[in-house]
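Schema walkthrough. Field components (list of strings):
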Amino acid sequence: MSTHGTPGAGPVVYDPVTLPADDNVNAYTFCVELKGGQWFLQKGKMIAYYGAIEFNGIGLGRLDRLVRSSFHSPLHASDWVVAEGSGKMLLADRAFDVNSYDLDDGNLTIRAGNLLAFQPSLALKQSIVPGFLTLIGTGKFVAASNGPVVFMEPPIRVDPQALVGWADCPSPFHHYDHGYLTGVLGGLRAMTGFGGVSGEEHQFEFAGAGTVLLQSTETLMAEAATGAVPPEPGVPGGGGTAPGGHGPQSSGVPRLPGQLGDLQRRFGL
Amino acid sequence: MNARTSVPPLWQTAPLGVRSGWVSTHGPCSVHLPGGYFRSVAMFRLQGSKVLAVDMTGDAVKAKNGSMVAYDGQMAFKKLSGGGEGLRGMVTRRLTGEQMTVMEVKGHGTCWFADRASEINLVGLRGDKLCVEAGNLLATDAGLRTGTTFTGLRGASQGNGLFTTTVEGHGQAAILSDGPAVVLRVSPQYPLIVDPGAYVAHQGNVRQSFQSGVTFRTLLGEGGGEAFQIRFEGDGLVYVQPSERNTIAGDV
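Field assembly_structure (string):
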């Protein structure tokens, strides 16, 4: 065996045998074991792997069937890749905390920027809440958070920046601290800033039964595109109600995969 | 004089830098020298995971310039131009872009080092060679030789230039990483492939080759996201951080 690093006397040295299978290596690194199977992962989150693993963009024809069955958000497919082969692969995201979650015939909605990877036995769909994605089915997924994740049960009001996602409960709604925001004093506060703004006048409120996932800081992770929605009336974020000037080509709307342009993003600039 | 008066907290009272067990929940800890091998060298130990404490008894360490955060006892800090490698080393570093501003710390007592709250990983060297980017090297035992070596395309794909810093000899070194590094073993039957942005350092008798997955699909924007990879083969250890630097291959 190698002479480097005697176990027990120094850093833990991992090899393909001692790396955990589908578990955390430390709080910031997750190890996925592939045995001829597939995993979806966000582009660029793989940090190292043992074995023979191939990474393919989702637009690839061969993966069309897989995309059809477990990737229902085709308009941001260019941000995702499929890893397939056999071996062990390490995932990490900018030294944020990563955790894996098991869904057993369940559903979970998560902020798009937090989702790192998922098993194809889960189906990924765009949530109608903008910026969120929903995972449905049975399987494992890996999510990052800024600080460890805390699980809470509704009824609860949470800070918008701390919300990571929710499972099994209805979508949240806005809650405003009306007593503080309205009235003469409230107006004065809002207009002048005098009297103090606590920064907590607005929350997301959850009702029903389920679980709410919170991160332990209020620093959001970078947003990830969730794809455009069809420009139909009645679709939130679709812009369908405004006549004219709101097509898929209008600025600020994510592109279709395979479309040319947007070179900066492709080259990481 | 008061070198030993600074009693470390109870959870860290292992003799001279050797920490037994796992106190911190993450990150590699200290490495001690093989049994019976004790000379008067500075002893490195981690205090938490982001501060390096070095106990010195008249000996010296080389450390990144300005990384001292505290010391007790008596210390002298001397800037070493060109990393203490002499004129030739200085010129080489200039030419290769692997400039290090290094200071020599010498004295009696304990000196604490840290750099921008980066995680610190201790590496024990027993005659083998550690390759690390100059910017990720925090401190080395003064007895270790440092130099510069050509890395080829791996360095280029990391945006770090074509050269890297080597550390050789017997002793300890401390390297920096963004998030605690994972130490992965490379053996002949298990080669390892690493993302250039997550690579921190490697140690031992390891060959690296550059592997590219650029296809026409990459150019169409349908790439696999992992177009550039470094493949390690041989026998040694690779340090990988749970974060990716911005590389030219970032999103390809």
